[in-house]
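Team,

Forwarding the record for the chain on the shared tracking sheet. I've put the sequence and predicted structure together so nobody has to dig through attachments.
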Amino acid sequence: MLAIPAAAQTLTQAAPNTTDQQGQNVPIEGAPGGPQVFGPQYYSQPTPAAAAAAPERTPAFVVTPTASIQGTFTDNVRLVNTGAQSDWITTPSGGLNVAGKTERAEIAGSYSVSGDIYAEHSDLNGYRQNLLTVDRFEPVKNAFSVELRGSVDQQEIAQTGPQSATLRSGLTNQTQVANASITPSYVERWGTWGVSTLSYTLNEVAYFNGGNNTTANNLNDSTQQTILASLASGDRFTRLTWSLAFSDDISRGTETHLDQQTAEADGEYRIDSTLRVPATVGYDNFSENQSGFSSTELSGVFWNTGIHLVPGPRTDLVLRYGRRYDKPYESGSLTYKILPNVQFKAVYNISVQTQQQTLASALAGVTTDANGNLVNPITGVGATPNQTNDNLVNSVYRARTFQFGVSGSHGLNSFALDGQLETRDFGVLQGSDRSETINGLIGRTVGPLTTVNLNVAASHSTSVATVLNQGSTFDLLTGVDFGYKLSDRTNFSFDVTRRHETGATKSDEDAFVARLSHKF
């Protein structure tokens, strides 16, 4: 199940002139003479005559400091079912956005830190950090590259536990998640025959409690390592494309170890312009497996095949069936271009991994859209790779996941819709959990300076006989956001949000948020 305040906040990023809960404008923008810039012109200033003769140069990298002040009124500060108390929360925030691209480097990222000061319940005072960055450097052009990725934010420990209507610190059932990776890779092109790749990824996932250490999260930090060697067909192969890959995935946590070595051969034969036939065969070897599954059960030969349909430039459909992890295996994907700037995507797959490997995979999947924003490749809206939609656990699980997403704008209107259905099996005697989530947003630009957004997020989560074993919870979040652009760099917004939880966790909360943000 999604952490709903973050999900609604993420969806809001799809609308123009909106800010997140820390008051940062998600699109990273720069203007001459505004933010500091790093590049050749930052270190040396041309003479007036040279400046007049030389063409205008775009800064290589734009650095934009941000600041905001936010006030929040809540009528249920401790998220209790009975005896609710109200409070006023003051939240100052500061941050930095960086964006830029050169021939051999590309940087996109933002960082902010926010402090929550409660007027009446000072024991809840705390701070939060938010970081999302994807950086790529290419010391040897078209051959050797290094990629750095990082994400830090606040997430719920149990999706079946209490959740607030607004993002704030000091509550139970919360943890800060730090997720970072480095990937050096080497690519060799063998004429038109093939392309080989050798890469190594080191990923670290850590949980901490930010500025309020009253809640123990009992979650294990973990290190993930992946070595990948592959050889894929080159441009010479048009009717039959193929690839060979060998990988070693290692996840090491205090309570959970999982090693997986995989050899895989994949091919696709193009019958005509519409129909293609994919096929995959390989072998998995699981070792050092601390889970409810036996290594023998998960290891072995796997295979799958199916159809790949491309009936036109707007549609791409892949359906596969086979056997893997000692069970029937199904997977599929659909991409449909509704409009030139509106694309629907859906993906279904089965995987065996640790909680920390799930976070590492989500971080590795973050992409950059046409506007330079970091987005989820399925939903097309702002990326939140640490948001698992499920309870955070120290365990290995077999997951079946279906995700879909579509977002875009038309005229003065913007919209976003995404959802996920996931079941996780923890093996013999360890139970399972299940979550269904859907999020929607409709935005309207009322005038040149004013926007209004309506967002709705609903989720249902069931956790039975697992380490958390918290039963079933239904969660509904609704909100209206009003934004007004005071200047090119200053925004004001006012949010009204309501959260209703019922089931294993019961609570209702109404919150009102006023926020003033500025880009320097």
